[in-house]
Amino acid sequence: MAKSSRKSASTKTTPTNQVARSAYFNRELSWLAFNRRVLEQAQSNRHPLLERVMFLSIVSSNLDEFFEIRVAGLMQQVDSGISETSIDGLSPQEQLRRIHAIATSLVSDQCDCWQQQVVPALAKENIFIRSTNDLTRSELSWVRTYFEEQVYPVLTPLALDQSHPFPQLGNKTLNIAVSLDNPDTPEDEQLIAILPVPRILPRLVALAPAKSGAQRYVFLSDIIKICAGELFPGYKVNGAYAFRITRNSDLYIEEEETENLLQKIEEELLNLRRGAAVRLEIEADVCDSIFHKLCEQLELSQDYVYRLRGLLNPVRLMSLLDIDRPDLKYAPFVPVNTSVLRDTSKIFSTIRRQDVMLHHPYDAFTPVVDFVEHAARDPKVFAIKQTLYRTSGDSPIVRALIEASRIGKQVTALVELKARFDEANNIQWARQLEEAGVHVVYGLVGHKTHCKLCLVVRREGKRMKHYAHMGTGNYNPKTAKLYTDLSCFTSKAKITNEVAHVFNTLTGFGRSPTFRHLLVAPFNLHRRINELIAQEARNAVAGKPARIIAKMNSLVDKTTIDSLYAASQAGVKIYLIIRGICCLVPGVKGLSENIRVRSVVGRFLEHARIFYFQSSTRAKPLIYAGSADWMTRNFVRRIEVLFPVDDPDARRWIMKELLPTERKDNENSRMLHANGSYLPPPKSESELGFSLHDYFIASALKRADDVKQADDALDLPTANP
Predict the structure, then answer these.
(1) pLDDT at 425
(2) What Cα–Cα distance (Å) separates residue 489 from each residue in 203, 495, 647, 687?
(3) Distance CA 179, CA 575 (A)
(4) In 508-641, which ranges are continuous DSSP H helix?
């Protein structure tokens, strides 16, 4: 095994040095395997039809980010002559070659799913996606009128010739390349022009309502191709082809050399418009002259070109979800607010009496917002400290912080300006908070602030009392309806004092802060996780019960993977629930035969991180939850917090309900095998399908019904969702 870049937590847990690089899956290819599992949701009849369209859209959104960041980084390594291999021994060139092959297959299957499965199924539901060849005479007339009135006025044709240089085309924008002939000089070579399409125009256009009530749509790109001749009077249009460029969108900022981080990031966001091209998507039937011209001007080899049979940007299919067809969508579910915190007048007294755990999106995010809003207005609250990584466009939490500051409370917000693709939103919030008098800081140099913490300081009698919210997800009420996360409220001094210590470290100076209860990156998280894994291994060798259950988004860190291998060899039973990237190879005899890996992809995005260690040095198992995946970036380059789950009710629920239900799922789950394949878990012919998402929805609705009945019996107002 190649030597790790960091020392292992314990030499006793380091696996044999003979472990080959084949003991690791490639990070990039593992991510593509995850996106394949997303595509499988679009291909499955188990989901309602319009929800399948949503999954198709997510596949493309994921791929866009993958190329903008991960592929762009590999291309830069190649251009810079960097030959450092990945964890599995692949060079950057070999990774790019394999990515192209896998992504080509993925996109081809995505197009087939749309054209052969979804479009015919939509037609059966009286929703028609018209191609240019399908349009009737009346529809064609409507299309031409729509073009003249809505599209023609905002298009600007750009000629490509000696006097017109190749234009700077925006990242992920729709463009139409047009091949033209001058009838007066037919012997001359064909001319080329480009039509950049403004983002403001809808990409899927609803045709005029038909008398039958059918809903009919046509892609904007088809409308423009049909009518392109209007923009070039006197010329003959030989063909028109839609294409799209993806550009490098990572930020490169030397923070140590940057006095004003906010201003520097604003400048970098403008530079992203001019990022190098990393992918060209274009229609498969494009003529050779245009194809070669684009590749030449974009400086892209054909290894980075994807010729598509139809659908160019499925991200825009998301607009189909606006169709008012509830029969083609998931049954509506409104998160329930049945927790003991629903009486906001008693929110602090309740947390003072007990810890409270919420499971989103089944439990409403409302108590989290109430916690901050109530703190903002409570005259006994003197200070609020809050981390903001990603939040909604109209954030009630940001509004509450502004309100608290304006009425004289001390408010501190740690805004992560480098939250990928949310940089512009966070800059906007940072400026609004600063204008309201909030102390806005950006965390430690060289580290993203990814932890999810809120601390409230309240005067109670003669002393100051701390109340904390700690979570696994962002402070975003919108995504809280789509992501599965945990929220924990506590007033226990041993925890809240350390939460305060985290904030002081981030806003002040603290080179080596000490934490006894919280696991905080980059200080003690990586070391402690590997110590806990090693402890399980020692217990297994001693004949004691030893088990690890870990639920996270991604497992990439090589040192931690090696520790898990060593624990498996010692006899520890390890069960990993990893939604996305997994570089660990499970089920290999002599290496990882005691490790099982499950991925869950379904209606909700599995986002919670939960870690269970059965045989700690304490009398009871250790359970942690928090913001960190087991990736090197989370351990070393981010501010992360895992918090212990000590409340007996919360512990019982995690051990007896949450984790067993995750393992019971046989509809959304895939098991990772040693050859890299993800296959459905074994199921007998008599075994019924079981979805953890459906189970927890039913459980939440039952809680709401129980609360309503109890309130009715006491003649109390019903709990608000």
Answers:
(1) 62
(2) 44, 10, 11, 39
(3) 57
(4) 525-541, 558-570, 632-636
Q: Is the pLDDT of residue 212 over 80?
A: no
Helix, strand, coil % in the chain, rounded to nearest 5: 40, 20, 35
> Which percentage of the chain shows pLDDT scores above 70?
88
Whether 475 contacts 666, CB under 8 Å: no
Options 47, 359, 447, 450, the catalytic residue: 450
Query: Residue 517 carries which side chain, given as an amino acid letter?
Result: H
CATH fold of the domain at 11-23+525-681: Endonuclease; Chain A (3.30.870)
Q: Are 248 and 276 in contact (CB under 8 A)?
A: yes
Between helix 92-112 and helix 72-79 the angle, nearest 10°, is 150
Nearest C-alpha neighbor of 60 from the set 329, 306, 224, 291: 306
Q: Residue 472, by phi and psi: left (phi above 0), alpha (psi -120 to 50) or beta?
A: alpha
Helices (H), 338-492: 347-353, 366-377, 396-406, 423-435
Q: Could you confirm whether 450 is annotated as catalytic?
A: yes
98: burial class by Cβ within 10 Å (0-12, 13-18, 19+)? middle
Query: Tokens at residue 430, please?
Result: 């940072």
Kindly report the average pLDDT of the chain as a whole number: 88
N- to C-terminal Cα separation, the chain: 53
What CATH number has the domain spanning 84-328?
Answer: 3.30.1840.10
Among 719, 713, 707, CA closest to 337 = 719
pLDDT at 16 over 50: no
At 490, is the pLDDT very low, low, confident or very high (cuts 50, 70, 90)?
A: very high
Alpha-carbon span 603 to 330, nearest angstrom = 9
Instruction: Tell me the pLDDT tens digit for each residue of 228-283.
Output: 999 999 999 999 999 999 998 775 444 444 445 445 445 554 454 457 899 999 99
Residue with tokens 């012919």: 685
169-178, 463-472, 712-721: the lowest-pLDDT one: 712-721
What pLDDT was estimated at residue 435?
87
Average pLDDT over residues 124-150: 94
Specify whether the CB–CB gap between 640 and 521 falls below 8 A: yes
Q: What is the DSSP string of 120-139?
A: HHHHHTTEEEE-TTT--HHH
Spatial distance between the Cα atoms of 163 and 719, rounded to a whole number of angstroms: 69
Q: Are 179 and 244 in contact (CB under 8 A)?
A: no
Architecture of domain 344-513 in this structure: 2-Layer Sandwich (3.30)
Q: What count of Cα atoms within 13 Å lies in the side-chain half-sphere of residue 595?
A: 31
> What tokens does 358 get?
């919420």
Among all chains, which residue has been given the structure tokens 């981080």?
261
Q: 3-class DSSP state for residue 189? A: coil
Pinpoint the residues of the chain covered by CATH 3.30.870.10: 11-23+525-681, 344-513
User: Within 13 Å of residue 443, how many CA atoms lie on the same side as its CB?
Assistant: 25
Distance between CA atoms of residues 485 and 390, nearest Å: 14
593-611 tens-digit pLDDT: 999 999 999 999 999 999 9
475-512 exposure pattern, b = at least 16 Cβ within 10 A, e = fewer? bbbebbeebbbbbbbbbbeebbebbbbbbebbbeeeee
Looking at beta carbons, which pairs linking 14-18 to residues 24 or more positions away fall under 8 Å?
A: 14/562, 14/563, 14/566, 15/562, 15/565, 15/566, 15/569, 15/591
pLDDT greater than 70 at residue 21: no
**Tens of pLDDT, residues 372-412:** 999 999 999 999 999 987 665 578 999 999 999 999 999 99
Task: Say yes or no to pLDDT of 13 above 60.
Answer: no
Q: How far is CA 68 from CA 259, 380, 631, in A?
A: 27, 48, 20
∠ CA 716-718-721, nearest 5°, is: 155
Reference 588, options 206, 77, 6, 19; nearest CA is: 19
